Amino acid sequence: MSIDRDTARKVAHLARIRVEEGDLDALASEFNTILGFIEQLQEVDVEGVEPMVSVTPMRLKRREDVVTDGNQQARVLANAPDAREGFFAVPKVVE
């Protein structure tokens, strides 16, 4: 697949990037280079290769997925202009 000047103009427009007319050929060339890299990657045989998220084998720290209040209610409400019974107090807006 090859990107021409008109396609580069359309992609720039869709991406909301202002590209001067004189720079469209260079942009099209860069797009073609990127597509060439992608074609090279598609030729790589990845059969049997496990997906990974890092080049170093490490496990993420895990915690139990439990809902808590964070034990910070007093600290959060300390900055409130008006707090009552453990909640933010706001003016009534609906009658």
Main features:
nucleotide-binding; 95 residues; 4% strand; asparaginyl-tRNA synthase (glutamine-hydrolyzing) activity; 2 strands; ATP binding; flat; 3 helices; two-stranded antiparallel sheet; protein biosynthesis; mainly alpha; ligase
Q: Concise description?
A:
The chain is 36% helix and 4% strand.
Describe this structure in words.
This protein has 95 residues and is mostly helical. It has a domain at 5-42. 36% of the residues lie in helices and 4% in strands. Strands 1-2 form a two-stranded antiparallel sheet. InterPro entries: Asp/Glu-ADT_sf_sub_c, GatC. Its EC number is 6.3.5.-. One of its GO terms (biological process) is glutaminyl-tRNAGln biosynthesis via transamidation. It comes from Histidinibacterium lentulum.
> Ranges with pLDDT <50 over ≥5 residues?
none
Amino-to-carboxy terminus distance: 64 Å
Alpha carbon gyration radius: 28 Å
* Global structural class: mainly alpha
Approximate strand percentage: under 5%
Largest sheet: 2 strands, antiparallel
Q: Secondary-structure element sequence?
A: HHHEE
Widest sheet: strand order? 1-2
3D shape: flat
Helix content: 25-40%
Mean pLDDT: 90
Number of helices: 3
Subunit structure: Heterotrimer of A, B and C subunits.
Enzyme class: ligase
Catalytic activity: L-glutamyl-tRNA(Gln) + L-glutamine + ATP + H2O = L-glutaminyl-tRNA(Gln) + L-glutamate + ADP + phosphate + H(+); L-aspartyl-tRNA(Asn) + L-glutamine + ATP + H2O = L-asparaginyl-tRNA(Asn) + L-glutamate + ADP + phosphate + 2 H(+)
InterPro entries: Asp/Glu-ADT_sf_sub_c (IPR036113), GatC (IPR003837)
